[in-house]
Specification:
- By secondary structure, this protein is an alpha+beta fold.
- It has a single domain, classed as Cytidine Deaminase, domain 2.
- The protein is 25% helix and 19% strand.
- The protein has 5 helices and 6 strands.
- Strands 1, 2, 3, 4, 5 and 6 form a 6-stranded mixed beta sheet that branches.
- The longest helix is centred in the first third of the chain and has 15 residues.
Length: 182
């Protein structure tokens, strides 16, 4: 499936940051993540013999510091021209617990692809006390009907979404990201 411009922007942001790392042995992987407002957050790992945090986990903290809600897309890239890299098992589990609807960029033979984090961890343990916010993706042509309440139901294949009343903290999600936008 062809990536949207905003999804390509996330991958490109991670790859640009990774290319800028140079030969710093303490920072070897960069990550970028997009929130529901279309902001792209960037971070690098902290390599340490005790197992310092991966770039994906650092970018979660950066996004939280910026007041981001649920993340929609995340990508990581390695230094030295390694390009896009998939997250490790620990990062996959943390992403599933904190951002269960995030799409994760992974390298494939056909180029970058996005996978729901849930598919990267089959039969995963789900942390019951995680305070994650959920996302429902839909085609932008339905936006006005969803916003006004004309469209109130949908059929979702392969998505684990439980029905719940809309809370006062629910956010309206709009596709607003552009490459290079803050």
């Amino acid at each position: 499936m062809k990536l949207f411009e905003s999804e390509r922007c996330v991958i490109e942001a991670a790859e640009r940051l990774a290319a800028a790392l140079g030969h710093d042995p303490d920072h070897t992987v960069a990550a970028a993540a997009m929130d529901t407002a279309g902001r792209i957050h960037r971070a690098v790992n902290v390599h340490h013999f005790t197992g310092g945090p991966c770039a994906e986990l650092v970018v979660l903290g950066v996004a939280a510091t910026a007041g981001a809600g649920p993340l929609t897309t995340i990508a990581a890239a390695g230094d030295g021209g390694r390009g896009l890299i998939p997250p490790c098992g620990r990062c996959r589990q943390v992403l599933l617990d904190l951002h269960p609807d995030v799409l994760v960029a992974v390298p494939t033979d056909e180029g970058p692809a996005l996978r729901p984090v849930r598919t990267l961890l089959s039969d995963a343990y789900v942390f019951p006390d995680a305070h994650s916010q959920r996302l429902v993706r839909f085609n932008k042509r339905y936006y006005e009907d969803v916003r006004t309440g004309r469209k109130t139901s949908t059929v979702r294949y392969g998505e684990a979404i439980a029905l719940a009343p809309r809370s006062s903290s629910s956010r309206t999600i709009r596709p607003t990201a552009r490459c290079g936008a803050p």
